[in-house]
Amino acid sequence: VQLQASGGGLVQAGGSLRLSCAASGRTFSSYTMGWFRQAPGKERDFVAAVRWSGSNTLYADSVKGRFTISRDNAKNTLFLQMNSLKPEDTAVYYCAAGRVIYSSSRLPRQYDYWGQGTQVTVSS
Predict the structure, then answer these.
(1) How many C-beta neighbours within 10 Å does residue 106 have?
(2) Kindly report the CA angle at 43 between 41 and 47, in degrees rounded to 5?
(3) What is the pLDDT of residues 7-44, one digit of tens each?
């Protein structure tokens, strides 16, 4: 599976962005998909995950209620709708795929495939 993230940019605090992650390969629908982010000098942190069916989602506490993860298996695409953005959301955002045990969805090491990252910058 190859992943290509896009949709990042510069936005003012309180604004919105929608990230996309296009996947190649016929097995996209069988993978748990996740979004992670990494700020300069910090570890890669979990943001959100969605199971293969799209019916189960998981969020980091810091983004719950503001971000929404979704997927379109027919189009092999993962999304992250980000609303009410804050300066602390500034980071490079990565999409990831893997056959992940749902209880371990927050762990980067559980994912087998990673996109190249897209920069999100939120100004105050």
Answers:
(1) 17
(2) 125
(3) 999 999 999 999 999 999 767 788 999 999 999 999 99
